[in-house]
């Protein structure tokens, strides 16, 4: 099982021809990357010197297929390493951190700066082999989470952690038991209540409007039926069941005097005038005068003539007839 130890002392990237070698890895030089990202042929006892550039890079060990999670979080009794965050303002303040290698097995590492691993894929590997490669580790970043050593795994997230020597299927990090439960907030409940009340009000108004319209139609239909059965012309002839009765003739009868007296020698009383004859009566009088007109010789003075006032419902003349006076012989 691979292991490593680290020290925070500064060191230069040098190597002795007969002793252990020193391998220099730049962290953050010209971007979010380790340069080089793959270090081959590192022997036991060799030193990896990480050189940190601005502003806040670090290096932490990771397990294969768990690229952005601390190594010690992936299994019991596992010991990882971490340089802590290296705060560097300028290139004049560059810091170094040394890692001594005691195994030739692949050792993966990542930068724990915010979004460096997940977003920028700032990872590396020491002594990769044919199965545990840098390309496979980068592919495993998709769907993973990023955790800084010493911080807990987020409650809402989970990471697929690989344990070497297991049955082949990766194990998932345990989810926190204090996760949030899905529930409706007070604002959502209030919105639902308001919507339901508004719907009921609209339905009630619609039912009231329909009932009101139906009632008005029934009233109008009854009114139209009543008008059609009782409305008749007061001045024209009625249907066969209602005989015509001229009302204005009765008024004419009431205005006539009960009788009229006139002597041949008397003049008309003051203010007296013959009533105007109705056109129909005038035509009848004209016809009678042409058929039978008495001569003056046959007319005798008989005194005052009395004419009876016509009774109701009788045809009358509108003009009084004056009795002619026979001249003395």
Automatic annotation (TrEMBL):
Matching InterPro entries: Cupredoxin, Ser-rich/MCO-related
The keyword Transmembrane is annotated on this UniProt entry: yes
Low complexity: bias regions: 164-180, 281-292
Region (Disordered): 1-20, 146-180, 227-329
Transmembrane segments: 188-210
Keyword entries, A-Z: Membrane, Transmembrane, Transmembrane helix
Gene3D superfamilies in alphabetical order: Cupredoxins - blue copper proteins
CDD domains: TM_EGFR-like
Top-level taxon: Eukaryota
Name of protein: Cupredoxin
Organism in which the protein naturally occurs: Massariosphaeria phaeospora
């Amino acid at each position: 099982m691979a292991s490593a130890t680290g020290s925070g002392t500064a060191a230069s990237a040098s190597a002795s021809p007969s002793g252990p070698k020193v391998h220099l890895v730049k962290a953050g030089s010209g971007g979010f990357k380790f340069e080089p990202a793959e270090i081959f042929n590192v022997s036991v006892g060799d030193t990896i010197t990480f050189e940190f550039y601005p502003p806040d890079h670090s290096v932490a060990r990771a397990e294969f297929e768990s690229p952005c999670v601390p190594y010690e979080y992936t299994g019991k009794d596992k010991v990882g390493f971490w340089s802590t965050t290296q705060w560097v303002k300028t290139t004049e303040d560059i810091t170094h951190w040394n890692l001594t290698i005691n195994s030739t097995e692949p050792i993966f590492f990542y930068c724990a700066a915010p979004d460096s691993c997940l977003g920028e894929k700032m990872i590396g590997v020491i002594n990769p082999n044919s199965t545990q490669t840098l390309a496979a580790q980068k592919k495993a970043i998709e769907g993973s989470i990023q955790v800084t050593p010493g911080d807990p795994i987020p409650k809402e997230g989970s990471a697929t952690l690989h344990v070497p020597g297991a049955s082949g299927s990766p194990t998932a990090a345990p989810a926190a038991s204090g996760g949030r439960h899905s529930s409706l907030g007070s604002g959502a409940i209030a919105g639902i209540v308001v919507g339901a009340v508004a719907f009921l009000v609209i339905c009630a108004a619609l039912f009231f409007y329909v009932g009101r319209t139906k009632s008005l139609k029934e009233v109008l239909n009854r009114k139209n039926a009543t008008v059609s059965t009782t409305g008749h012309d007061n001045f024209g002839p009625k249907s066969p069941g209602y005989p015509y009765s001229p009302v204005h003739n009765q008024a004419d009868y009431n205005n006539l005097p009960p009788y009229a007296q006139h002597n041949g020698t008397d003049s008309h009383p003051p203010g007296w005038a013959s009533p105007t004859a109705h056109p129909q009566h005038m035509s009848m009088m004209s016809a009678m005068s042409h058929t039978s007109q008495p001569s003056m010789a046959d007319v005798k003075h008989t005194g005052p003539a009395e004419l009876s006032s016509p009774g109701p419902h009788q045809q009358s003349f509108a003009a009084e007839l004056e009795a002619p006076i026979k001249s003395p012989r």
